[in-house]
Amino acid sequence: MSDTDRWLVIAGLAIITFALKGAGPAVLGGRRLPPAAMRVIGVLAAPLLTALVVTAIFAQGTQLSVGAHTAGVIAAGALLALRKVSIIGAVAVAMAVTAGLRAFCG
Predict the structure, then answer these.
(1) Considering only CA atoms, which of 86, 60, 92, 46 is closest in space to residue 73?
(2) What is the pLDDT of residues 58-97, one digit of tens each?
(3) How far apart (Å, rounded) are the C-alpha atoms in residues 77 and 50?
(4) DSSP of 51-97, one letter per residue?
(5) CB count in 10 Å sphere of residue 76
(6) pLDDT, tens digit, 9 for 90 and up, residues 45-60
(7) Which residues contact 57 (CB under 8 A, 6 or more apart)?
(8) DSSP at 34
């Protein structure tokens, strides 16, 4: 595939993405969604976020990966759940645990 072909594919995908993103507001306009749709949207936020976080924690490419980064995220999550610290504090703990494990365990 040549560079020109790659750029054409990227431009085409960008146009399709913009069209799809704009279709919802254009079609629905100022109308309210039905109550059933609003309930589904409200319920989907937590599982989608959880799926993204779990995928980021346990996946490395196409393989399952458990390592220092996993322990760091688990430590930060436990700290957030038990101590109600700020997100910056949780990130600092995750970084410290991950760096410590990588330094001492290789």
Answers:
(1) 92
(2) 887 788 888 888 888 888 888 888 888 888 988 999 999 9
(3) 12
(4) HHHHHHHHEETTEE--SHHHHHHHHHHHHHHHH---HHHHHHHHHHH
(5) 22
(6) 889 988 888 888 788 7
(7) 69, 70, 73
(8) P
The structure tokens listed for 52 are 């993204």
SS3 2: coil
Cβ partners under 8 Å of residue 81, min gap 6: none
| Pair of tokens at residue 77 | 């999550």
Write down the residue that tokens 């936020």 correspond to.
45
Output the furthest CA–CA distance in the chain (Å, rounded): 58
Residues 63, 2: Cα–Cα separation, whole Å: 30
User: What number of residues does the chain have?
Assistant: 106
Cβ 58 vs Cβ 66: under 8 Å: yes
